[in-house]
Design goal:
nine-stranded mixed β-sheet, three-stranded antiparallel β-sheet, globular, alpha/beta, 32% helix
Length: 467
């Protein structure tokens, strides 16, 4: 038999102090920052009225959103077809939209988005046109001089991060969902489970100073627990008892104490979460056997357990990858649009089944859109694009923002159809944050650039897409 000291034994379980940043065995190891763990017990708690959730869907890789929401009138479609050449969707294949706020143009959807067409026409879904990461309102002149542009413009990692932090002038560590939760986390009477729940591991969006994401999986009861935690075999029972004994030790080192408390809390929280999911309101809505649908199914199950968990506010993070379509874009993008269409429809149906469709708002983000100009069989990195926002509280059947001209050399074209955004992420996200429960006076803490685009003192919403 090998002789293990306390540190060696913890390391064999993946629980050594050196592995703080990489531990994946326990769902809640990042439920709070390690250095904040000791102070967690002193946080004030109050119960907010009602329930609200934000569901962030990252379309990872850069959604070719100009092939998602497409001008369909003859003149505008002609411009689109001329610039997209072999990447165009045939005019007769577009799914027609009838927006309640017409701008003199006609629009259609990608033919794979029949469910989203129906939800739009029913008023439960809207589009935000030409939105993107901006430091301040930007023109072609200021772009050409390089003034106050996002860092790493057109870079996947930078732009994906900027959408999640809304601080594009810096490679910030904290996400706007994390900063939002840092302000509102005491809305939840149950402080054991983080306000921020992720179906795709650690992410920037939900990273705060005090609140981190609670990672779950899309299968079973959702919890990611220590291997064998519910197994009553001799070895597993012995391992659990040994671990519990180690965690009960009064450590002298403050980091060891905080870490042991976090591991203990993580184990207990995972079991609590698992029990809540198991006993939550059953959902009969059918979800496809596909990654995004599976993840949104677990989000729905978590929402169904909201009363058991005793929470009033939650954010969720899920992602659908594969949008880096430098080639084979027509076929690959059609498959992705079909997956997104089916997943959002099933998720909305589940929310209706639970009676919370007015209390949950789902929104999409992506690295950027793609160039309008073809590279031969695909399209390269661009900037401004279109986003989807869905929910009963959404003032739907509308296209918000400014849909740009699509001819090359227009006033927003930085080259080859890389379009400067005319609506900022700050405006888009600030409206979501206000609906979620943030006050106008909180917004400059959550979105440091918001005053560059909108005056919170006016009482007028930044965009107006949500009640």
């Amino acid at each position: 038999m090998s002789n293990y000291n306390r540190r060696d034994f913890l390391s064999t379980l993946g629980l050594g102090c050196a592995s703080v940043g990489a531990t994946t065995l326990l769902s809640g190891i990042t439920n709070m920052g390690l250095l904040n763990a000791a102070a967690a017990a002193n946080r004030p708690v109050y119960q907010a009225n009602g329930y609200k959730a934000l569901v962030c869907v990252l379309l990872s890789g850069g959604n070719d959103s100009y092939n998602m929401l497409i001008p369909s009138g003859n003149d505008e479609y002609g411009e689109y077809a001329n610039v997209r050449t072999n990447l165009k969707i045939a005019q007769e294949e577009l799914l027609p939209l009838n927006p309640l706020n017409p701008d003199g143009k006609s629009y259609g959807l990608h033919p794979s988005m029949t469910n989203i067409q129906t939800m739009f026409e029913a008023g439960n879904l809207a589009f935000i046109a030409n939105v993107g990461a901006l430091v301040e309102p930007t023109t072609l002149t200021s772009f050409n001089t390089g003034n106050n542009l996002p860092l790493g413009l057109f870079s996947h990692s930078d732009q994906r991060t900027h959408w999640q932090t809304s601080v594009p002038q810096d490679r910030a560590a904290l996400g706007w969902g994390g900063r939002l939760a840092d302000i509102l986390y005491t809305n939840n009477a149950n402080q054991n489970i983080s306000m921020n729940i992720s179906l795709d591991g650690i992410n920037v969006f939900q990273r705060g100073n005090n609140v981190q994401s609670f990672s779950i999986k899309p299968t079973g009861s959702g919890s990611i627990t220590l291997n064998g935690i519910t197994n009553n075999g001799f070895y597993q029972s012995l391992k659990r008892q040994t671990l519990d004994n180690l965690l009960d030790v009064n450590y002298q080192n403050i980091l060891e104490t905080a870490y042991a408390n976090s591991v203990t809390g993580s184990k207990n929280n995972s079991l609590e979460f698992s029990a809540a999911i198991t006993n939550g309101t059953p959902i009969t809505t059918t979800f496809a056997d596909e990654k995004l649908s599976e993840r949104l199914n677990m989000v729905a199950k978590t929402i169904a357990a909201r009363d058991i968990l005793n929470v009033s506010n939650q954010t969720f993070f899920v992602q659908l990858g594969g949008f880096d379509t430098h080639d084979n874009i027509i076929a690959d993008h059609a498959t992705l649009m079909s997956k997104l269409d089916a997943a959002l429809k099933s998720f909305y149906d589940a929310l209706v089944e639970l009676g919370v469709e007015n209390d949950v708002t789902t929104f999409t983000i992506s690295d950027f859109s793609r160039k309008l100009v073809s590279n031969g069989d695909g399209s390269d990195h661009a900037w401004g694009g279109h986003a989807i926002v869905m929910g009963g509280a959404v003032t739907g059947q509308k296209i918000y923002g400014q849909y740009p001209d699509l001819y090359l050399g227009n006033s927003l074209d930085t080259g080859n159809g890389r379009i400067i955004p005319t609506t900022s992420c700050d405006e888009y996200f600030a409206e979501l944050a206000l609906w979620f429960g943030a006050s106008p006076s909180d917004l400059d803490q959550i979105f440091p650039n918001i005053n560059n685009f909108w005056d919170p003192t006016t009482g007028i919403p930044p965009i107006g897409f949500i009640a």
